[in-house]
Amino acid sequence: MNSKEILLFDNRNDADQLLAKQTIVELAIDGERWLFTKYDESYFLFEKHCPHFDYPLKESPISGTGEVVCPWHNYRFSLIRSGSESEQRCRPLRVIRARVDDQKILVAFNSG
Ligand code: FES
């Protein structure tokens, strides 16, 4: 399996400024749209639509335990661990934890 790392932000302050205005920001990365957020000092990308019935997740709240809560049926998808209760009812939400290197924010995508 190959991995490709992409630079999201040169400076994490830029990301923090964006996320101060809205909890979830939509980003275009390599021709695909992702949602970007921060929880507990870590940054995450996750897919735009709910794995349950495809509802847009951009306006979802992030719970105090790091779960994306879908506004439609309230399924909860953890950013930080797998095996949430919702994953027993539908497939998991695709989540990628970003890596912070000095001030840069990078994400690795697996392919192949
Ligand atoms: S569409 Fe998200 S919980 Fe049903």
UniProtKB/TrEMBL annotation:
Residues covered by the Rieske domain: 40-107
Superkingdom assignment: Bacteria
Cofactors, names only: [2Fe-2S] cluster
Signal peptide: none
Keyword Iron-sulfur: yes
Annotated InterPro entries: Rieske_2Fe-2S (IPR017941), Rieske_2Fe-2S_sf (IPR036922)
Protein family per UniProt: Belongs to the bacterial ring-hydroxylating dioxygenase ferredoxin component family.
Protein name per UniProt: Rieske-like 2Fe-2S protein
Organism: Marinoscillum furvescens DSM 4134
